[in-house]
Amino acid sequence: MKFPWSAGVPPAAFESVGSGMKKIEEKHPLAIRWFHWINFPVLTLMIWSGLLIYWANDIYRIGFGSWTLFHFLPDSFYSALNLSHRLAEGMAWHFFLMWFFAINGFLYVIYTVLSGEWRYLVPNRRSFLEAIQVVLHDLHLSKFHPPRRKFNGAQQIAYTTIILMGGGSLVTGLAIYKPVQFAWLTSLLGGYPAARLEHFLLTLGYVAFFLVHIAQVIKAGWNNFRAMIAGFELITLEDFPDE
Amino acid sequence: MNDKVELPHDKERGEKTGEGANAEDREGAAVQTRPVSSANPDPSKKPVETAGDAVSKIDGPLRGKTEKEVLRQAIIRSRRSFLVAGAAALGGFTGWRWLNSRRLDDDILWPLRSTLQVNEQLARDYFKTTRVAPTFPPSTAKEPRINGTEGMDTDFDPASWRLRVLGLSEYGGSGTQNMFEDPGTGENGITLGLEDIKQLPRVEMVTELNCIEGWSQVVQWAGTRLSDFAAKYGPVTMSGAPPDVEKNPEDLVRYVSLETPDNGYYVGLDMPSALHPQTLLCYEMNGRPLSPAHGAPLRLVIPVKYGIKNIKRIGTIRFTDQRPADYWAERGYDWYAGH
Predict the structure, then answer these.
(1) What DSSP state is assigned to residue B38?
(2) How far is the C-alpha of B13 from the C-alpha of B10, rounded, in Å?
(3) Helix or strand or coil: residue A243?
(4) Residue A200's closest chain B neighbor by CA?
(5) Contact check, Cβ <8 Å, B134/A186
(6) How far apart are CA A101 and CA A38, in angstroms?
(7) What is residue B121's three-state secondary structure?
């Protein structure tokens, strides 16, 4: 069967089986679940080893002139996570894990393209307006209910942006890892110090994404979370007027 | 409700995800040949409950399925997936523990050391080792910070400094120089003064010094190319033939070692990087003679490497076929450290 909101999408994505009040609806393909859960610890360790490296020249701050609102990062943060005086170790881990991060990311992109999954993930003309509506809804500022679709506009934007950010981390990382071999890239990014800052800002972006993502996953509940492990959601047919 | 249109896709999905594809195939095919009217499943066909067939059960005619049955199938699939997830998490954690309990190779875990060496090999095989580092307008040049005092003994006397050079071919221009015998190895070498270095072609360049700590500084340097130095003094060759730095660098020994006079700091270079046109034996920084803190009387400038390879106060240059010891590589850093 097809749900009205799944019209025009490949049939493999929304098959659902069962009858009565509950039914099983396929959500996340197995490959995507693996990519997701491999990426989670790898990216975590990339950020960890990145912090071991960043500590050796921790110059970024939010402030103006001699006034500093926040310094990246406070000494208490380094000592709490034991991040100090470990530059060599950090670099070795970073240049080991980068392969897993890059390969897993490339495979994910290739898979989403070949399987057609990209259709649910890539934003379209309606996504941006919808994303605003979703945010207003989530902040309880609007009564508009996000569409019952695999990924709403806000999700499409978020999940596509995070992949572009992953690509950005590879590109800015390459620019500071091999600034002579990729001198054109380093210069395109504004030079070595600029590329290093961009690499850092992307990392802050992951942290921000992570916080919102976790909040949304908690808010969405068990059924949604289980889909990222087991692949399916259990839905109640009453939700659908066409049944 | 015509659920049968979904079956081919279900089958495809099952194969893609590897979830009970075989059982599903059989079940799916059976269902497709069955007329629509025979909606009630044959009780004898009720699937045996095994880990692989959760999907196959719900592929059958659906009208007879109860909510309870759907829930049961959901539980079965969940249980299996969470078991796999748990096993994968345990596997990942075990791998992490294993990696972290490996013996150290020059102060880092050997799998990480091996990866650095693989990365080095890929860089040397697939990058153009003669690619030049970007240069900058002299107006952007500033003093780099003074970083690292290793090998910078305070009782050093620049007036009596002589550069010791080892690993020279007998065909080189060494015969006329001041010979000495290395007390450690018994090897013959020559000693040179700064005036000998300054006789070689002078090169000026404005390049970025990239410290491994993460800071960088554009600096104007002046000195002579290490390749010109090698061409004049003639490193020993693998074949024993006269060295030809320009036309046959592959025949030269593969490494160069540079050490401070007190041997408190030492770096190793691969020969292609040592012979890079921007690798300088440097005696001037930002238009002035090198200050003691920046490595007077002679330091190395090598923009294709991190700052750690830009050794200050060179005491000894040794051409060698042994991969030389490197101060920071012994302390967990990448030996190659190439850009």
Answers:
(1) -
(2) 5
(3) coil
(4) B214
(5) yes
(6) 9
(7) helix
Q: Do residues B302 and B221 lie in contact, with contact meaning Cβ atoms separated by under 8 Å?
A: no
CA distance A145 to chain B (A): 27
What stretches of B134-247 adopt beta strand conformation (E)? Answer: 163-166, 178-181, 188-192, 203-210, 216-225
Beta carbons of B213 and A87 less than 8 Å apart? yes
A12 chain-B contacts, CB cut-off 8 A:
9, 12-13, 16
**Domains of chain B (ranges, CATH numbers):** 3-97 (no CATH), 108-331 (3.90.420.10)
The stretch A113-138 carries a mean pLDDT of: 92
Each residue's pLDDT tens digit, A39-94: 999 999 999 999 999 999 999 999 999 999 999 999 999 999 999 999 999 999 99
Nearest CA in chain B to A95: B116
- Taking contacts as CB-CB distances below 8 angstroms, the residues of chain A near B134 are 180, 183, 186-187
pLDDT digits (tens, 9 = 90+) for B276-295: 999 999 999 999 999 999 99
CA–CA distance, B115 with A93 (Å, rounded to integer): 9
Q: CB distance B70–A234 less than 8 Å? A: yes
Q: Is the ipTM of this complex over 0.90?
A: no
Helix (H, G, I), strand (E, B) or coil at B208: strand
Q: How far is A143 from chain B (nearest CA, A)?
A: 32
A62 touches chain B (CB under 8 A): no
Does pLDDT of B275 surpass 60?
Answer: yes
**Is-contact B207 B219, C-beta < 8 A?**
yes
Query: From the centroid of its chain, how far is CA B25?
Result: 48
Q: Which one of B58, B133, B334 has the shortest CB-CB distance to A91?
A: B334
Spatial CA neighbour of A108 closest among A25, A166, A175, A152: A166
Shortest Cα–Cα distance, B52 to chain A (Å): 13
pLDDT exceeds cutoff 90 at B174: no
Chain B environment of A54 (Cβ under 8 Å):
214
**Chain B neighbors of A37, CB-CB under 8 A:** 85, 88
Mean per-residue pLDDT over chain B, rounded: 84
Q: Please, which residues have CB within 8 angstroms of residue B325's CB and are 6 or more apart in sequence?
A: B257, B266, B268
- Quick one: pLDDT at residue B74? 93
Chain B residues near residue A11 by CB distance under 8 angstroms: 6, 9
**pLDDT per residue over A204-221, tens digit each?**
999 999 999 999 999 999
Residue B115's alpha-carbon distances to A169, A175, B108, in angstroms, are: 20, 20, 11
CB contact under 8 A, A41 and B92: yes
CA distance B204 to A240: 76
Tell me the per-residue pLDDT of B56-81, one tens digit each, with 9 for 90 and over. 444 444 545 678 888 999 999 999 99
